[in-house]
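Dear colleagues,

As part of the handover before I leave the project, I'm documenting each prediction I ran so the next person doesn't have to rerun anything. This entry is a single chain, and its sequence is reproduced below.
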Amino acid sequence: MADSKEKIIDAAIEVFAQKGKHGTRMEEVAALAGVNKAMVYYYFSTKENLFKAAIVKIQTVQFNSVADKIEYIMKHIKSPVEKLTECIKAHFDTVSQNYSFAKILMEALISNPDYIHEAMESILKERHSKIHKSLEEILHEGVKQKIFRNVDPVQTQISIMGMNLAYFMGMPIGRALLDCPCPGGEEEFRQRRIESVIDLILNGLITRPEDYK
């Protein structure tokens, strides 16, 4: 029975990503999951509950992936600059490699931001706190070594998350409005994007001579 529930959630993620919450029908989710519609309603009762379950699954997968990578980075890399660079890459890779997840989260952020908050509070609080504390530790370490300027660690983390998530809007906008050719396709654009994010973040953090006059 648990397998059926997970299949339903996975199918829902695929359909929500394709058609949005309002365009999704429970019959479509059931058909894709290989179960009858009654079973979908048995587990979730409403489409709204199914949408919430999809968000919890997405958040769990993404945050666990980022947390695992950051734990490795904190153990094996010493330089604050290298640590921060790898953390930015870890987050970017996680959000950019699953477009379905990003589409659903963006819809939730616009129409149901409380669902994101509820998922993080109920499922991910402990690991999310570890991610936040690790990034804060990196920034404080860089300040202590006079490598980084003394910036607000919370605002810096928000900037990193926002710039990474903007990848999903940046690609179509770049092609349509900015005449941004990418002969290598999406993979080339993705690589350019992460290099640009790292460059902007580090150039905003690295100390300048006048900071210590």
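The chain has eleven helices and no strands. The chain has two domains: 1-45, 52-212.

All the best with the project,
I.
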